[in-house]
């Protein structure tokens, strides 16, 4: 089902709307024009600094952590954010992508402030030779002179990051961590980790930059389209998480009502 999310996210959804708009243009011109405007206009709007900042800022509730707050945690956990394939400059083959490098740099900074042990989490999405966590370990060692204490290399998404990391941490007696990720990603990640039984201090990095106070704020650029797409992906992930939690709660409530009904019925019968 991974492919399905790309159909409802830009730029694919915009292209589909544009194509459908052209197909409907002759028979239903008003509908065709609307779909074409929505597809092309939406794509241009999402590519502006104003749109990308607006979409990302709503995802970033947590402030930067302080040194005093770090004292309440037992470890620093860095989530993988993706990889670049066959990057030649480091000699490792694949390397962490820019988002992951940002997380690693911030985790190294927090480690030097606190002395807390490090954990990296990330697996293989498409059967790659090395897990993402292994690449993160190499980056910490070769570029920052640090060695992670724990390497979780099986997870493929945020929910699995939380589940597999929690099992390793709890076995080591770790129950509260500083969780490092992009500011826009942390709210969903925090919920996943707390659901897995780990107390979290959010440690956000890579905050959304405000748009310039000029017409440049409305100039479409590919960079900002990518930022907007990333934000929409996260909003979609939050929506799925809300639905999942609602369904779980609904099923639990239905189960409790059923148990209560049959218990009462059997009690009356006996």
From TrEMBL:
Transmembrane segments: 6-25, 30-47
Lineage: Bacteria, Pseudomonadati, Pseudomonadota, Gammaproteobacteria, Oceanospirillales
Keywords (A to Z) from UniProt: Membrane, Transmembrane, Transmembrane helix
DUF218 domain location: 74-237
Entry coiled-coil feature ranges: none
Source organism, top-level taxon: Bacteria
InterPro entries given in the database record: Cell_Envelope_Assoc, DUF218, Rossmann-like_a/b/a_fold
Protein name per Swiss-Prot or TrEMBL: Uncharacterized SAM-binding protein YcdF, DUF218 family
Organism of provenance: Onishia taeanensis
Gene3D superfamilies: HUPs (3.40.50.620)
Pfam families in the cross-refs: DUF218
GO biological process, one term: peptidoglycan metabolic process
Gene Ontology CC terms, in alphabetical order: plasma membrane
